[in-house]
Amino acid sequence: MKCLLALTIVALAHRAEAQPTTIDASLARAYFAELRELGTSDGGRMWGRAVNGPMMFVDAATRTLVASECDAKGIFRENNGVCVGTLPEQINPANTAVDLGGKRWSMVLWPVSDSRYARRRLLMHESFHRIQKDLGIPATDPSNSHLATLDGRIWMRLEMRALTEALLRTGDVRTRALRDALIFRARRRSLAPRAGEDERQLELNEGLAEYTGLVTSGLPRSS
How far apart are the first and last CA of the chain? Predict the structure, then answer.
């Protein structure tokens, strides 16, 4: 009996996982409005132009998409204040920027976090990827394979801890923590010939995107 119950639970779990998810159009519409609000609040101050723009939410399981506006080639159809369609097979669903239907889009996987600032940070992070080429910061994807090694991870964690200490402290303690962070970074980057350059490219690509998301998310600044 217990064995049968266990098998039933497993079967139900697999069935639940197999069920396609759908995108809540009304919720998507609210998130698009939130994105526009964040763009208005920034007013182009950060990058000299609007960060927000065309965005689509994509359900990776069904490839259904809901977009903030319709494309220039009529691929999507308007429905209740949003535009809906299907992601073409040649495009992999991911959090990234894509060209589709004569426009460049920020693509965000659905579902999106219901945590207000985490969601806002993600929306603006991916919005940066949409405009970064126009800013003269083309997207790159260096391997940074040294960060997957034991030593690379250790020295990275030590740098992060030192930087955290620097943020929490003042005066000489902060200075020492910053010095330690730079030492840890230099040691880590000595592990591989391209480590420094690969990390620099990663910081330009993902670091600037995450910084943009954080600064423009509306997260209250600490006093």
Answer: 60
